[in-house]
Amino acid sequence: MAGVIARRARRQRAFRWTVLIVLGVFFVLPLIAMVEFSTRDPSTWPALVNWPELSERYPALAEGITSSLSQAALTALLMLVLLVPTAVWVRLRLPRLRRVVEFLCLLPLTIPAIVLVVGLAPVYAWVTYFFGGSSLTLVFAYTILVLPYAYRAIDAGLSAIDVKTLAEAARSLGAGWGTVMWRVVLPNIRSAVLSAAFLTVALVLGEFTIASLLNRTNLQVAINFLGKSSATMSVAVSLTALLLAFVLLLLLSLLGGRRRSSVAVAPAAPAAPASVASKEPAA
Description:
Elements: H1 2-38, H2 44-49, H3 51-57, H4 59-92, H5 98-110, H6 113-131, H7 138-159, H8 163-172, H9 177-188, H10 190-205, H11 209-213, H12 219-226, H13 231-262
Helix pairs in contact: 1-13, 3-4, 4-7, 4-10, 4-12, 5-7, 7-10, 8-9, 10-13, 12-13
Membrane topology: Multi-pass membrane protein
Subcellular location: Cell inner membrane; Cell membrane
Family: Belongs to the binding-protein-dependent transport system permease family.
């Protein structure tokens, strides 16, 4: 019996290593090819890390980078302002609507981006009329796009704490709802908020369809246009954006592991000292 278990363990170990190697080659080989292609022109990477030179040689790319970074920051901010108070309020006051809110937040995940653009195009005609044709107006569409991922991250953080008890304790001490949200609930879901923000940034930096079809500028649209004139720089920027997304997801996993490890089990209360037995009087 022990020999059968050992052989099964060896087969499982060999299978896991085989899958790991195959997937590693599948993911790493394109990255190696991108590095090799982008280094054929020696001036590509020095220009990419030199912002004044990049802005002078590739102004459309510099505009796309600044637009995407601004969009990512504003989208993350708008998403947190809308989603965190809503999720907390639903848990405290409207628990029966939790499934409805979850369904509405997960709905953009089931709608293809091209269909979403068709629905947003008439809305953006009015957005352009009131706010102009700036690329920052994409923040509204991106906020809808990131709702499924951000909601799951924040909901998981709220599920890990007793929001109702914390809020009632703070309210009983005279705290207002703003103080409850900012100084009581938010510090306890800091990891969840950071996770939602990282996911938002990664999604916004990689979005192409909505920006292209709505005739707005972002990083991916700029990379697409740049590929027609400078393929090496286009591949180098794509590789940089991909590595940035990997770093964000790595930080996300590290924050999740740190959060799990920080949840310590409360030590058991020390036992009370045993009472000294009274001695019976000697006969």
